[in-house]
Structure to design on (634 residues):
């Protein structure tokens, strides 16, 4: 028998565990959202109009890696939080993510026709329906967080509401989207080019804030102590940075069929992205697709030498 | 001295008290929103981008009767809730109301240029900014509700979050907006005309749900007992109905300069509105503007013979 390099074997196993657990969270999140977005109205609702439900389901079901719910579930697992609780918080976060995609794809925003390999919500339905579905999903996220199934303690649910609102709103994701449009010269063609720090803030808000919330939500659900929370916040921030770099590089070098959305758009729109940062740093632009995959691993190396609260966090490393 | 009809005198006084208290809530809500939407980021926010803040402030400050916050404050006052608490909940509700106006006015929705006598958000800024400002205001509403200043008890804040999410979302306001577009024949030109019950459900969701929440929020803040809650729910529902009738009639007969927005649009868009209901009932369409004002008093008569929890509710009658 051929000898197996132990280091190599370990790396392969970690990847398999990661893929397996990611897939399980994706499956569970899909089933949960499907149940939450059923046709029957619940207490406090008058009716669930069929077309609105259809668009909300189209925009949130049947696709996506469910990376954000995965972060919630795995971070919460560090503190022995029951999976049904963290899946609820993950579903809420995914609703916010999916709403932001539906609104981002609108003609007045990024004007995208393709998302997750399918027509975007306004293409499959119409603009008004996509706007309302986004509004409905954003609102629904807070409904989910407020439910007892998310956590038995009101304080915990309330902290999730507060943290998600700040991550998603004016000072988080929505703010980042506005900075992104401004950086394209959308409001002032003569706007000065952003510096490295500006691009980092933009990306930390636009993409980073929700990924960071995913990790932080785990610590809130788990009633973690301050140092554990800080560790997960730092992990979430680093992951957010790595994720955005990978996404930007995929836009430059990815194949639309593989990526599931139109590529090459950031450069055309003069987006303030990672490739812009590479140029700022005087480096050569990336030349292969594998660069993107590698940068997705940045976050792992960021945390690799850190001491984790419990050994079961291996899947996050 | 001329003799004064006592019934007439009483009516005049009630109206003056109503106007005075409405104006005070409007003033306090304006000041509170101005403070909440200050430029400095708060804990959990990275930055508050200037343009986004400008549009959010434009869409939420400097106009509006603040009827919804008024309902929260006055309903909460029935239970001796401190005014600073009910103003917070009222400000959250107003954020939801203002976001819905910004999105409703978009070209893909109702395509309105005028709101509260000023250009609509997408006219004063641009479409993308109006979309993001709406998203930001909706998100901000839940941030406000989650704060300790809204109520010292986490359970109460959480109940407000849940009730607002259901009133505003899929099974409430957003659902009603979708039904409204469908009733215009937006998605199917051959859609059958709505019956009286359909129009009532549509309006209860589109406009009624937030007004009803205003009243219910008062009972939540006041930890009211079940019969008190039910009374305020019924009051809120009746007020919502009356309000929508008045609004529809203003669209038929109002002067844009007085109403502060374009009129005559509902008929052009074949909206399912109160005038449609009047026709369904075989009645003559209303012929004077005063009909609208009178129908706004419907809610008062709905509750006039009810026994209220405490005498200080007079201003709501």
């Amino acid at each position: 028998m051929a000898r197996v390099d132990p280091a190599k074997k370990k790396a392969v196993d970690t990847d398999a565990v990661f893929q397996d657990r990611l897939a399980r969270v994706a499956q569970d999140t899909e089933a949960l959202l499907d149940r939450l977005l059923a046709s029957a109205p619940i207490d406090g609702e008058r009716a669930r109009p069929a077309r609105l439900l259809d668009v909300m389901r189209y925009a949130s079901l049947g696709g996506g890696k469910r990376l954000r719910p995965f972060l919630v579930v795995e971070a919460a697992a560090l503190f022995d939080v029951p999976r049904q609780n963290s899946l609820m918080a993950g579903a809420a976060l995914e609703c916010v993510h999916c709403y932001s995609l539906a609104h981002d794809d609108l003609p007045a925003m990024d004007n995208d026709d393709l998302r997750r390999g399918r027509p975007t919500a306004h293409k499959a339905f119409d603009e008004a329906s996509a706007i309302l579905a986004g509004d409905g999903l954003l609102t629904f996220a807070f409904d989910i967080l407020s439910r007892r199934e998310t956590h038995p303690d009101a304080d915990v649910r309330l902290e999730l509401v507060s943290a998600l609102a700040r991550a998603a709103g004016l000072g988080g994701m929505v703010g980042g989207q506005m900075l992104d449009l401004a950086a394209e010269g959308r409001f002032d063609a003569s706007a000065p080019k952003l510096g490295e720090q500006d691009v980092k803030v933009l990306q930390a808000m636009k993409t980073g804030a929700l990924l960071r919330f995913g990790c932080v939500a785990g610590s809130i659900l788990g009633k973690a102590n301050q140092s554990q929370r800080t560790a997960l916040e730092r992990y979430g921030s680093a992951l957010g940075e790595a994720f955005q770099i990978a996404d930007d590089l995929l836009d430059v070098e990815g194949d639309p069929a593989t990526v599931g959305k139109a590529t090459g758009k950031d450069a055309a729109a003069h987006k303030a992205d990672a490739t812009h940062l590479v140029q700022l740093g005087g480096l050569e632009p990336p030349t292969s697709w594998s660069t993107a995959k590698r940068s997705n691993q940045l976050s792992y190396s960021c945390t690799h030498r850190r001491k984790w609260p419990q050994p079961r966090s291996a899947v996050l490393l």
About this structure: DSSP finds 15 helices and two strands in chain A.
